[in-house]
Specification:
This protein is about 10% helix and about 55% strand. The protein is mainly beta. It has a single domain, classed as Bacteriophage SPP1 head-tail adaptor protein (Thrombin, subunit H, Beta Barrel). It has a 6-stranded antiparallel barrel.
Length: about 100
């Protein structure tokens, strides 16, 4: 991975569940890490193969290896939110490749 391709600063968030005043669960997000990432939209063929896994994957994200990174987390970058659907370690703790789906509210 070329360092120049990691050109966006992003916040990785982890879900945190708490309870409101009447005991109902509330999902909130807390910062797990801040990392430089490279984010690329998937090409047509990559998108088709990603959809075979049953998820609506829209982008691929590259970043340096981050211990504890999981598929239940999300990335917030430049006002956009991406749910992590897949985490793949490349090399021996060298980098992570993530498949993500952009969340549109």
């Amino acid at each position: 991975m070329k360092t120049g391709t990691l050109n966006r600063l992003a916040t990785i968030q982890t879900p945190t569940e708490s309870a409101n005043a009447i005991g109902e669960p509330i999902l909130s997000w807390s910062t797990f890490a801040t990392r430089w990432i490279g984010i690329m939209p998937l090409s047509g063929s990559e998108s088709v193969s990603a959809m075979a896994t049953g998820s609506d994957v829209t982008h691929k994200v590259m970043l340096h290896y981050t211990p504890g990174l999981k598929a239940k987390m999300r990335i917030v970058c430049e006002g956009r939110t991406f749910e992590i659907t897949s985490v793949v370690e490349r090399g021996y703790r060298a980098e992570h490749e993530l498949l993500v789906a952009e969340v549109t509210d």
